[in-house]
């Protein structure tokens, strides 16, 4: 009997020790930083209310997020088109260094953020835009749902459900999490457009569901507010024509639905109880899908509304309007924030000091680029911007090659073409868009819409030469 009692005591001790170890392990992993990365698809930098957007009640959830965290005003993505932009974010490298100069996978020898996080014990998830991070083996997600599971990336309720499920699974795993939640709004087709309306009633006929094909077996959810042409402001880089105003209203309706999606993602995080130990960043992968924005190198092409919320480290309601950050800086920043080893060979560097409120040297400019569109048409562009000026080199502009990309497929460019027959200023804009010139130079501080090319102005000769040399260096 005594031996039996001793055995029971020993067994009890073993069980208690195992429980204590499990508790300690759980406490240790739960104390590690969680990371939530939210992206919009083609949202212009000045669309949200917090960024000066004039459309009423356009982004209430993003505006709240801005009040709870930091806004980085001089923030740019590296490339103004979706897949290359996102692959720069996840490698910390320019396209010519990661292999994804267009819609291509990153090279096998290039480390990705997801590989580092996986090694660091993170539980990885992605919603939407899954196919824009390739090859699959270099992005080892534990949880993934692409656009076909999210009403083509446009249903706020489905985002809530999937984020809630992911967070439950992350908790059960005992690991810290990294979730990349990608809205497909406000990418074309815009809410209320002819293409959007056709897809909304289109039922699955057994074909693969793609962004350009059948919508599938669900319908587009309508935005909470559908904007009218008279409610919106046409951006300065576009002419104020009736069809331009009509299409911009559709865009703003899509942007509002994107904000609804973000609100549901934030609600799921809040209800999980993990929000106080989560670093959250938001940005748009590039500018609006309109002429002179997306798929170019203008200010409105790459500047992005970048927000950071980090309870306990980032002071709520702060604005940094002096330091430039870039898409290539995202990976090194996340690695440092998560306490993971740095990766050699990255072009970007961590901006963690900025989040603490400290200054950082060497952040007075940004380099951006563009190489080719999804159809593999090459339009090589390079840009150097500082707080005042922007210098653009168009390597493809030979007077013969004609520019043609997705932002020209809607109502806006067609309206510009029609108006060009009667209005010379619009005709000049159409000609510049189609054929460009080898060099462009703008005072973006005074002319954010890039309407006045100053490349031939003698008063800027020295400044232009300095920026040429910096780009070559």
Written account of the structure:
There is one protein chain. The chain is α/β, with parallel strands linked by helices. The protein folds into two domains: 23-364, Alkaline Phosphatase, subunit A, CATH 3.40.720; 372-472, no CATH class. 35% of the residues lie in helices and 15% in strands. The chain contains 14 helices and 14 strands. The protein has helices spanning 2-31, 60-68, 82-89, 95-98, 113-119, 156-173, 194-201, 242-272, 299-302, 330-337, 352-355, 411-420, 424-435, 461-472, and strands at 34-40, 70-72, 75-76, 123-127, 143-145, 177-182, 278-284, 306-309, 318-320, 325-326, 365-372, 378-386, 389-394, 439-443. The strands form three sheets. Strands 5-4-6-1-7-8-2-9 form an eight-stranded mixed β-sheet, sandwiched between helices. Strand 12 (378-386) and strand 13 (389-394) form a beta hairpin. Helix 6 runs parallel beside helix 8 (242-272), helix 8 (242-272) packs antiparallel against helix 12 (411-420) and helix 12 (411-420) crosses helix 13 (424-435). The longest helix is centred in the middle third of the chain and has 31 residues, at 242-272. The chain is globular. Residues 13-30 and 201-218 have low confidence and may be disordered.
């Amino acid at each position: 009997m005594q031996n039996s009692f001793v055995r029971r005591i020993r067994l009890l001790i073993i069980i208690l020790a195992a429980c204590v170890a499990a508790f300690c392990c759980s406490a240790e992993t739960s104390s590690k930083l969680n990371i939530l990365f939210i992206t919009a698809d083609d949202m212009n930098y000045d669309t949200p209310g917090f960024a000066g957007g004039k459309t009423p009640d356009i982004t209430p959830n993003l505006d709240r997020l801005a009040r709870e965290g930091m806004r980085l005003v001089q923030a740019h993505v590296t490339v103004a088109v979706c897949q290359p932009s996102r692959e720069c974010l996840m490698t910390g490298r320019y396209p010519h260094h990661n292999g994804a100069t267009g819609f291509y996978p990153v090279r096998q020898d290039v480390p990705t953020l997801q590989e580092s996080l996986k090694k660091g014990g993170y539980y990885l998830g992605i919603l939407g835009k899954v196919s824009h991070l390739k090859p699959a083996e270099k992005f080892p997600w534990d949880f993934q749902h692409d656009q076909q599971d999210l009403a083509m990336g446009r249903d706020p309720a489905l985002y809530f459900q999937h984020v809630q499920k992911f967070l439950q699974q992350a908790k059960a795993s005992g690991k810290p999490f990294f979730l990349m939640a990608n809205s497909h709004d406000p990418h074309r087709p815009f809410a209320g457009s002819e293409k959007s309306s056709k897809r909304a009633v289109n039922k699955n006929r057994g074909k693969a569901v793609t962004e350009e094909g059948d919508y599938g077996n669900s319908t587009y959810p309508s935005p909470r507010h559908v904007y009218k042409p008279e409610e919106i402001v046409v951006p300065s880089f576009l002419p104020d024509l009736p069809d331009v105003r009509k299409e911009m209203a559709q865009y703003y309706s899509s942007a509002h639905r994107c904000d609804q999606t973000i609100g549901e993602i934030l609600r799921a995080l809040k209800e999980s109880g993990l929000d106080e130990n989560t670093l959250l960043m938001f940005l748009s992968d590039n500018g609006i899908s309109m002429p002179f924005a997306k798929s170019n190198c203008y200010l409105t092409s790459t500047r992005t509304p970048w927000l950071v919320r980090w309870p306990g480290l980032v002071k709520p309601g702060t604005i940094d309007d002096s330091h430039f950050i870039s898409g290539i800086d995202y990976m090194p920043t996340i690695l440092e924030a998560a306490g993971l080893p740095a990766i050699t060979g990255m072009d970007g560097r961590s901006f963690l000091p900025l989040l603490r409120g400290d200054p950082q040297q060497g952040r007075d400019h940004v380099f951006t680029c563009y190489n080719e569109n999804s159809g593999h048409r090459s339009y090589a562009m390079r840009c150097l911007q500082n707080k005042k000026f922007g210098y653009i080199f168009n390597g493809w502009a030979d007077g013969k090659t004609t520019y043609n990309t997705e932002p020209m497929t809607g109502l806006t460019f067609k309206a510009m073409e029609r108006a060009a027959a009667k209005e010379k200023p619009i005709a000049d804009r159409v000609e510049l868009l189609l054929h460009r010139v080898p060099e462009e130079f703008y005072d973006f501080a005074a002319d954010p819409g890039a309407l006045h090319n100053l490349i031939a102005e003698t008063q800027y000769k020295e400044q232009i030469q300095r920026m040429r040399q910096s780009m070559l260096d």
